[in-house]
Design a protein that fits this description.
Layout: H1 2-18, H2 26-38, H3 44-60, H4 76-85, E1 91-99, E2 105-113, E3 116-124, H5 127-134, H6 153-162
Antiparallel strand pairs: 1-2, 2-3
Length: 175
């Protein structure tokens, strides 16, 4: 897993230097959406795949012609539920909670798997998110490493998806 983390960070650094964001195909967007909806999250590798899929969707939704909205962000609650249910080593979650203009609680969430971080903005605070906080499963004052995974969301997604050790019942990330 450490090798995968280092490889991802190296690929992201190289893509950030090029300054070109990868384009996500509709087919890959659908595959990522299927993963965030159905993946059984039990291991670090599962968390990495889930976050890579969420990251890819975050990139895809911003592309011209994208046919999805931001509804997919609700699926982060599946990750929160898995982290509450399972003791998964090597995972850290940071949250910076604020109040939106509409008065609801929103969070900036950082999920760190080994030395790779994924960040998600404008996450509506749910019961699952508040439970993570109340059960002290959230790291306070976690700093973002600045590695913008959306620049190379396709590369990161493919690297994680093709890595070994995703839970066997997920069959390479699918249920």
């Amino acid at each position: 897993m450490k090798y995968l983390s280092d490889s991802i960070n190296k690929a992201v650094a190289e893509k950030m230097n090029l300054g070109q964001k990868e384009l996500v195909s509709p087919e890959l967007g659908l595959e990522a959406l299927t993963i965030v909806k159905r993946l059984k999250i039990r291991t670090r590798e599962d968390v990495m795949l889930f976050c890579a899929a969420m990251n890819l969707l975050n990139t895809y939704v911003k592309q011209p012609g994208s046919d999805i909205g931001y509804f997919f962000k609700i699926y982060i609650n599946r990750l929160f539920a898995a982290l509450l249910k399972n003791d998964i080593p090597g995972i850290k979650v940071g949250m910076d909670i604020a109040v939106s203009r509409k008065g609801s609680a929103i969070a900036y969430v950082i999920v760190q798997i080994d030395n790779v971080q994924f960040s998600f903005h404008q996450i509506k605070m749910s019961d699952m998110a508040f439970n993570l906080v109340s059960e002290h499963k959230v790291v306070t004052n976690m700093l973002f490493d600045g590695m913008r995974k959306q620049m190379c969301a396709v590369t990161v997604f493919e690297m994680v998806k093709n890595a070994k050790n995703v839970s066997a019942e997920n069959g390479h990330g699918f249920c």
